[in-house]
Amino acid sequence: MQINSYDTMKIALIGYGRMGHAVEEIACERGHTIVSIIDLDNQADFDSPQFLSADVAIEFSQPQSAFSNYRKCFERNMPVVAGTTGWLAHWDEVKNLCTEGNRTFFYASNYSLGVNIFFALNKYLAKIMNRFPSYNVRIEETHHIHKLDAPSGTAITLANHILENIDRKKQWAESLNPSDTDLQILAHREGEVPGAHEIIYESDADTIRIQHSAKNRKGLALGAVLAAEFVKGKKGFLNMNDMLDF
Predict the structure, then answer these.
(1) 203 and 239 share a domain?
(2) Which of 74, 71, 72 lies closest to 101 in space, CA to CA?
(3) Which CATH number belongs to the domain containing residue 146 in this structure?
(4) Residue 23 lies in a domain
(5) Is the pTM of this model over 0.90?
(6) 57, 148, 152, 173: which sits with the fewest CB atoms below 10 Å from its CB?
(7) Average pLDDT per 10 consecutive residues for the chain, totaling 246 residues
């Protein structure tokens, strides 16, 4: 993909917490203009001329408000880059609203380019480890104490990729005493950790680990802005695989 060739855009931000501020900084660095910022206290601004002038909305809000935000964007024919996790119970509804209405919706459980490289590595390793049943596998993830969902969307994505490729694992579970067919996810919430994810394969003989640790939120913000640049002129239900073409 080309990350240096793009047209400048007018961007609306939905949600103005830590990630909203990080996205604003990266977007402005890349020459884009933030024309509207919508948070909990100004929901009427979905109908403002400023919001409606945007080329795309980048949404990092709260799990309980995300689905409503997506509907409001679809109703106004506004392309959405969605960064909130924890709303996946509405997945089918959002997908249907997008495809049936010929809307534009881009979703990633994690927008970091490094994490998406890690996703590809995780899938490749899982295909190999399917041949070696002496290794058990688990996921450990750590995030800051302000993160509302656990396990994280990133951990669930990693788990689903493992389940797709390792026949002996049937479902993920948060149990401290998982069954042989459970893929255990241990979710930790500590301090101000931006995000760390580790895949651990363990046998009686040795341990294999792969890990991604975020240093800050800049990688997530850059990925979201790149996604906003990518969706310009496109329709449909899009994701990082479409953008990165792994």
Answers:
(1) no
(2) 74
(3) 3.30.360.10
(4) yes
(5) no
(6) 148
(7) 74 95 97 97 97 98 95 97 91 95 94 94 98 98 86 92 98 94 95 91 98 91 96 95 88
Instruction: Tell me what pLDDT residue 4 has.
Output: 55
Closest-CA residue to 82 (of 99, 70, 64): 70
What pLDDT is stored for residue 77 in this prediction?
A: 96
Same domain, yes or no: 230 and 190: no
Q: Residue 227: left (phi > 0), alpha (psi -120 to 50), or beta?
A: alpha
- 137/205 same-domain check: yes
Range(s) of the domain holding residue 134: 113-213
Could you give the residue numbers annotated as active site? 143, 147
Question: What integer pLDDT is reported at residue 146 of this predicted model?
Answer: 84
Radius of gyration of the chain (CA): 19
pLDDT value, residue 170 = 97
CATH number at residue 235: 3.40.50.720
At what angle are helices 63-75 and 91-100 packed, to 10 degrees?
A: 10
Domain count, the chain: 2
CB 147 within 8 A of CB 196: no
Of residues 99, 71, 113, the one with CA closest to residue 224: 113
In a domain, 199, yes or no: yes
Give residue 108's pLDDT: 93
Same domain? For 118 and 155 the reply is yes
Q: Where are the beta strands (DSSP E) in the chain?
A: 10-14, 33-38, 56-59, 80-82, 104-107, 136-143, 171-173, 182-189, 196-202, 207-213, 236-238
